[in-house]
Amino acid sequence: MSDFRVGIVGCGRISVMHLVSLANIDGVKLVACCDIKKDRADSVAEKYGVKAYYSYEQMIEEQNLDAIHICLPHYLHCKVACYAFSKGINVITEKPMDVDFESAKAAVDMAKAKGVLFGVISQCRYNNSARLVKNAVTSGKLGKIIAAVSTLTWSRSDDYYMESDWKGTWDKEGGGVVIDQAIHSIDLVNWIIDSEIESVNCSMSNRGHSIVKVEDTAEGLITYKNGARYAFYCMNNYGCDEPIEIKLLCEKGKVVFGYDDAYIYYNDGTTEEAHQDVNTVTYEGGKDYWGFQHVRQLNQFYNALKGKEPLEISGEEGLKTHKLIMEIYKKGGMKK
C-alpha cells in the first residue's frame, strides 16, 4: 500500500506538532503545506521538502490528497474541513472544533455523509497520567466518581494578544482562557466522567486585560446525569504557567493528576502512579504546555485510516466536549 498523501493547512506555531509527528509516522507522506502568509508556507516547504501553497483550495485541487491537517484560527476549522470533505478528503483538526456548536455539528454530519474520517486533536488524552486514571475508572477499580475539580493558573499578557490578529477575539478565537487554555483540562475530566451533562452553572470575567474583551477568568460547576459533580477554575492572569491540577473523589479512592504525573490512592491502602515517558520525539519550537503526545494521537488517526482500528477521537467524540465548552460560554454571559 502506498503512503497516504498529506497536506497541512496553517503553518503557524502549532503546526510544528503535526510536522514533526508526521515525520515519525510510517506510511504517511507530507507533500504540501499552505498558509496565506507566504513566508510561513515557504519556510515550512523548504524545511520539509514539500510544495508551498497560499490557498487551501488550490492545494486540495492539485495534490490528490488523502488527508489534511488543519492548524488554523478556530473560526476556520470547520469551513476548511467541510471543503475537504466535499472532495472526499479525510481531516484531522486542532482544537477547538470551531467557535460555535452548529458549525461543528454540521461538519460531523458532512464527514459521516461523505464516508471520510474527521479527527479532533485532544492530545492530552494520550498522556500516561490520563490513561492510567481513565483505565482505573473504566475498569471499576475506583468505583463511581463522586466529584472532580480542575485548576489552571497560567499567564497570557496583553503583549501575547497583541502578537496575534485573531487571538482574544470572540468571532475568530471564540473566547479566551476557557476555549484556548482550559479546554484540555475540561476535556480530560469530561472524558473520564463520561456521562451526559445535566446542568452547567458558571461565571466568567475579564479582570486583567485591557486590549481584549474575552474572558481571562472563569469558574463553574458542572453536574452529570450519573451524579458526578465537576468544579473548574481557570485564569490566565498569573505570573507564569503553573502545572494544571485535576482531582477526583471516587467511591474506592482519590486521584491527583496533571499532564505529566498521576497518583491514585485507593481506600484499601494501595497506590498507583504514572509519569511522562522520556520524550522520543523532539518538537523543535513547541511549547511544553502542548505536551508531547501529538505523535500518539496522529499515529492512531492514521492507523484508523489504514483500517487497523476505530478512530478514537472522532468528530462525534469531539462534539461531547465542544458542546460543553459552548454551554459554559452560554451560561457565562460574556459572549455576544
Please give a structural write-up.
- This protein has 336 residues and is of the alpha/beta class.
- Helix content is 34%, strand content 24%.
- The chain is built from ten helices and 14 strands.
- It has helices at 15-22, 38-48, 56-63, 77-86, 101-114, 128-138, 158-162, 177-193, 294-305, 315-332; strands spanning 4-9, 28-34, 51-53, 67-70, 90-93, 118-120, 145-153, 197-205, 217-224, 229-235, 245-250, 253-257, 261-266, 271-275.
- Helix 5 packs antiparallel against helix 10 and helix 8 (177-193) packs across helix 10.
- The relative contact order is 0.16.
- The model has no long low-confidence stretch (mean pLDDT 96).
Q: What descriptive keywords fit this protein?
A:
single chain, about 325 residues, alpha/beta, 8-stranded mixed beta sheet, 6-stranded parallel beta sheet, 10 helices, about 35% helix
Give the helix/strand layout.
Elements: E1 4-9, H1 15-22, E2 28-34, H2 38-48, E3 51-53, H3 56-63, E4 67-70, H4 77-86, E5 90-93, H5 101-114, E6 118-120, H6 128-138, E7 145-153, H7 158-162, H8 177-193, E8 197-205, E9 217-224, E10 229-235, E11 245-250, E12 253-257, E13 261-266, E14 271-275, H9 294-305, H10 315-332
Parallel strand pairs: 1-2, 1-4, 2-3, 4-5, 5-6, 7-10
Antiparallel strand pairs: 7-11, 8-9, 9-10, 11-12, 12-13, 13-14
Helix pairs in contact: 1-9, 4-5, 5-10, 6-8, 8-10
